[in-house]
Amino acid sequence: xxxxxxxxxxxxxxxxxxxxxxxxxxxxxxxxxxxxxxxxxxxxxxxxxxxxxxxxxxxxxxxxxxxxxxxxxxxxxxxxxxxxxxxxxxxxxxxxxxxxxxxxxxxxxxxxxxxxxxxxxxxxxxxxxxxxxxxxxxxxxxxxxxxxxxxxxxxxxxxxxxxxxxxxxxxxxxxxxxxxxxxxxxxxxxxxxxxxxxxxxxxxxxxxxxxxxxxxxxxxxxxxxxxxxxxxxxxxxxxxxxxxxxxxxxxxxxxxxxxxxxxxxxxxxxxxxxxxxxxxxxxxxxxxxxxxxxxxxxxxxxxxxxxxxxxxxxxxxxxxxxxxxxxxxxxxxxxxxxxxxxxxxxxxxxxxxxxxxxxxxxxxxxxxxxxxxxxxxxxxxxxxxxxxxxxxxxxxxxxxxxxxxxxxxxxxxxxxxxxxxxxxxxxxxxxxxxxxxxxxxxxxxxxxxxxxxxxxxxxxxxxxxxxxxxxxxxxxxxxxxxxxxxxxxxxxxxxxxxxxxxx
Length: 503
Prior knowledge:
This protein is of the alpha/beta class. It has helices at residues 4-28, 48-58, 71-87, 150-153, 177-194, 206-215, 248-251, 314-333, 353-360, 399-411, 437-441, 469-488, and strands at residues 90-91, 99-109, 114-117, 120-122, 129-130, 136-144, 162-166, 199-203, 223-225, 240-243, 257-262, 264-278, 289-295, 300-305, 308-311, 339-345, 369-375, 385-389, 416-417, 446-450. The protein has twelve helices and 20 strands.
């Protein structure tokens, strides 16, 4: 296997080789004439045909799902920068380019890691999911304890043994079953380790199997974070294994041996934020920025589902990427009093890494960002419905910004707004899963425009042909009209007094 650090350097140089001509070409364009007063908006510059063309381009198999930290994400980022250059925006990244580079840290099991139960050889993170990367060597008898109730484990000496149990139960506190399940892996295995278990093997029941089928691929790649994140630190601990429901019959057989030799390796990979700007026309207000946010990455190439292994991410989030390009065209045609700043965040699917990095190290003064309008999945579900996350407490961090967004909806598309997904009690915790969050945590007014989840979310079926393009156009109009209002009024949106998230 090639040295990953050498690969990283090669990717970085390749990206920079593309970046230089893009930035230089953009800088050669004549500056737009300065307008001293705000004129009528340029809503007509947002065209359904442009949005459809851009979603089909970015969501094509050519970019192989744009997985964060891969060459595919970097290729897609160069394509986006080329579109931005053609529209005529100023580079606003590092060193006069459209790019802000950062590293993500990957922690994974080595390919030499081995796992077996009885006579079965299991390939880690393909046949059996290892819940957390760990260095471990275990050779122990396996005992099956049913569902692991106190009555079932109380009569067995578990010291020095690997414990197998079937997953059971359901959440009782309003969280999603997926979050409940991942929490169960942590809490129940910790209890078993306390009584001497040296490994824990969870076997899916029917509800857990549905999550296994949809989400187990997240373990294939290991863990990701920014360098220095707590989750990038390898803590050597007994292994926790997750098996599909089909394993129940053979895993509960008596007299089997559990053997594991697991080793962890860690690498740094490049990812990138794409940053561009339309300067404002007002001599003072142009120093302030309305930030339009989205992310360009998705899940890449994974295990095939019905013969398709490319997770194209058309709705998640080629729709947001196309929306920002359309809004750029509108601001380029008619600049506002404040500057319009556009940021495509890399590696969002790895844990909001690009937005965490940019919000902490912005290429403009942090205090100059007056509001963040985030585009996340805007082209599916009922044509007349949408959601504005950050619109109700405890997620509302600026009533001022929310009121501008609600007024823009009434002036434009008039969507019926679903507020259920914005509630602290919603099991999906959707507010916490997109790029507005790091900005909101810093006290910057922020909202998210979304048409919410659907059955093709994070599957290979999220393809360009399934997008509702008239709806995407209306969502883009709504986001633009909000940003236009923020960019032209005298006062910046006021933060909400006493704003505090529930987690």
